[in-house]
């Protein structure tokens, strides 16, 4: 039985226990983040500097991919994952507590030594500590897990309960550690977890401070009334001035600023939306960081203020140009299809049929709309209306042909108007012997059988076919072979 199966068994057991033991779970909020946050990948781990770090969020998924497939504690390493990082400045014990907001939430973790390992090449061999125990009610009253000086086991297996701590690490200067934390809600109120605090106050090792936050990039968006500034590291939501006075833009009045995922003054963010007082003309601008109207500066999760000055150029894009569709409004035969070709060169397409290609082929009449997204993320739409008309449908076979290789009337076959299906065509001589047959409406008889030319004379033909939205028909007739 593998560790995942063991943990599944104990999870089932946990559900029985929690149905017996009554725990208060009301009044605790859950802040579920969208998938694929930056810190859900090892290379974008949140750098910590010691003390205490409060995470009010619940993460879902494993980010864009899985950085670590397994650990010595479990066959599956990542579930609803986030990553943090510390770098050692002074030697000592590395220990911490992960303290849940809700004691019934279950947090698993792994610590990886990546001092000599690239963050995008992690293996189970990099894991130096892990704890994937089950936090069953009655076995861990606070739900706290972590690394402790009093623990002696480096690896606490999945499915085990009553072992909240793994042993601490003897850390030396220059070492870098990643801390992987998996978020689980509890069984009395299934769903997202409720957040946690990671507390390093018991560590005797000291940590290298992270670089102060700085402007990193402008997040591309189609807006003439806001700009999104991406930062090099997460900053505290509470340090962002709601009136936007942490920022200035020449020629633009700013009325507000808020961090992505910031629902209140708690939490952290790596992106700040700066809102303008109105709509401004397309063109080039520069956003700069400054001290807010209250005298504060945006600070990171370690309390380090953003280095000033900081600035980045950005562009308010022009509206997207309306795409062309060829052909425009047009009429087609009711039994035919038509290709609608959108203007090429755009990064993204979306038709009202759900197709996301520049061109589509349609059979039904109606209005077909195309929405394009340009390089700036701006959208524009166009449409074309297709109308059906009644067009003739028939099958015609000549009464003579001349297979003399002069390039004229050398082959005997039907001519069609409109699509056909279920096609069968055969030619017989006057004694009823089969001279030729085919199921391909575009292949005819060249007057030979088995490679031998047949004599002039009268031959009998039979043709079976079905025209668009009509019943199957069979026609018979004769043809004169002339040389």
Describe it.
The chain has 483 residues and is mainly beta. Helices cover 4% and strands 42% of the residues. Strands 2, 5, 8, 9, 11, 14 and 16 form a seven-stranded mixed beta sheet that branches. The chain has a five-stranded mixed beta sheet with strand order 3-15-7-10-12, with no helix packed on it. A five-stranded mixed beta sheet has the order 32-39-38-34-35, with no helix packed on it. The longest helix is centred in the first third of the chain and has 18 residues. The N terminus is likely disordered.
From the 3D coordinates, which CATH architecture of the largest domain would you assign? Sandwich
Largest sheet descriptor: 7 strands, mixed
Unreliable segments of 5+ consecutive residues: 1-26
Q: How many domain regions?
A: 4
**Overall shape:** elongated
Structural class: mainly beta
Strand content: 35-45%
CATH class of the largest domain: Mainly Beta
CATH topology of the largest domain: Jelly Rolls
SS elements, strand count: 39
User: Tally the helices: what do you get?
Assistant: 1
What are the SSEs and their pairings?
Layout (H helix, E strand, L loop, with lengths): L2 H18 L10 E2 L13 E2 L4 E4 L1 E2 L22 E10 L1 E3 L1 E5 L5 E8 L13 E5 L13 E4 L6 E2 L8 E3 L1 E3 L4 E9 L11 E4 L6 E2 L7 E5 L6 E11 L10 E3 L4 E6 L8 E9 L6 E7 L20 E7 L8 E2 L3 E4 L4 E5 L5 E4 L7 E4 L3 E8 L5 E11 L4 E3 L3 E2 L13 E3 L2 E9 L5 E5 L9 E2 L2 E2 L3 E11 L4 E10 L2
Parallel strand pairs: 1-4, 2-5, 9-11, 10-12, 25-30, 32-39
Antiparallel strand pairs: 3-15, 5-14, 5-16, 6-13, 7-10, 7-15, 8-9, 8-14, 17-18, 18-21, 19-22, 20-21, 22-23, 24-26, 26-28, 27-29, 29-30, 31-33, 34-35, 34-38, 36-37, 38-39
